[in-house]
Write a structure and sequence with these properties.
This protein is of the alpha/beta class. The strands form two sheets. Strands 3, 4, 5, 6, 7, 8, 9, 10 and 11 form a nine-stranded mixed β-sheet that branches. Strands 1-2 form a two-stranded antiparallel ribbon.
Length: 307
């Protein structure tokens, strides 16, 4: 395979984005014949077919979609560079792109990320929330710098990544005042028969919580299951059921929602990880997060990194 010609790649990118050679030619102020010729040269250089003709339109092949994903990164980054140089001729703002698994409590995510905003060279923070598998896919192709998750990187992913334990804490069980008043007693026995809101099946803490309840022979009424932690907390705040939050944010959630503490346990713990493609963390924002998590949020907990 010959060296990649980025001018030809740019023509391909514009054609794919514009939806056809004619529209791309108008944008680039070139003739359609010239664009078609350059695409042919690119396909020959890459030894692949980028488009297939469907009627009067061009459709990306599977290989073309792969090339487009990389071209998108290359040229969007180039536009970002030009924009950065226009507004910051001396230095460029550090980009800090973070994925947050949807089962990580929003308050925990904020407390973990806030120290990154205090470093001397303040980063431009870009946060994406979603399912862990989707976020890890973006991490693998360097669309994200780290992923904040409630579990280490699953072994099923054929991606080289490293899980850095930020900390762990027990669970605090909260309820709206009216609900708490109707379920008084000794904790955790008061949970028996009480309405309980559970995190979804993707949450790492859920099986630990269920095993703990089974061990104690406590059988709550499962009033709801939620894949999003913020939605779970919102239902809990309104009195739909007792709900568990990481103890490190229990006081904050009580102040924000008016919920009251019905009990807490250290026998069920929730862990938080920063997943990266680096064995040794080097991004200044990630280093600030890791240090603050251990010293301020969870105590001095010796974290580990594993493939």
């Amino acid at each position: 395979m010959s060296a990649l010609n980025y001018k030809h790649l740019h023509y391909f990118w514009v054609v794919a984005k514009a939806g056809g050679v004619g529209k791309a030619a108008a944008r680039l102020h070139l003739t359609p014949q010239s664009i078609s010729g350059q695409l042919g040269v690119l396909e020959e250089a890459l030894s692949i077919q980028l488009f297939r003709r469907t009627g009067r339109t061009l459709e990306l092949t599977e290989a073309g979609r792969l090339v487009l994903s990389y071209a998108e990164e290359i040229f969007v980054l180039g536009e970002e560079l030009q924009e950065a140089l226009r507004h910051h001729p001396v230095s460029r703002t550090i980009q800090f792109r973070v994925g947050i698994a949807d089962m990580v409590a929003k308050s925990v995510a904020y407390q973990l990320l806030e120290p990154a905003m205090r470093i001397a060279e303040k980063p431009r923070l870009q946060c994406r929330e979603g399912r862990l598998d989707s976020l890890l896919g973006d991490l693998a192709v360097h669309r994200l710098d780290i992923v904040i998750a409630d579990r280490p990187m699953p072994s099923k992913f054929n991606v080289k990544g490293f899980s850095h334990l930020l900390g762990e804490c027990g669970l605090s069980f909260l309820a709206a005042p009216s609900l708490a008043a109707s379920h008084k007693g000794i904790f955790p026995q008061l949970l028996d028969g009480a309405p309980l809101l559970l995190p979804g099946e993707d949450a790492a803490v859920r099986p630990k919580l269920m095993r703990w309840l089974d061990k104690l022979r406590i059988h709550p009424f499962i009033a709801g299951e939620f894949d999003d932690s913020a939605l779970l907390n919102a239902f809990g705040q309104e009195g739909a059921g007792i709900y568990a939050v990481p103890s490190t944010i229990s006081d904050l959630i009580q102040k924000q929602t008016g919920s009251v503490l019905v009990g807490q346990t250290g026998q069920v713990t929730e862990q938080f990880y920063a997943i990266s493609t680096e064995r040794r963390l080097t991004h200044p924002a990630v280093l600030a997060i890791s240090q603050a998590a251990r010293q301020e949020m969870f105590g001095d907990l010796s974290g580990s990194a594993s493939e």
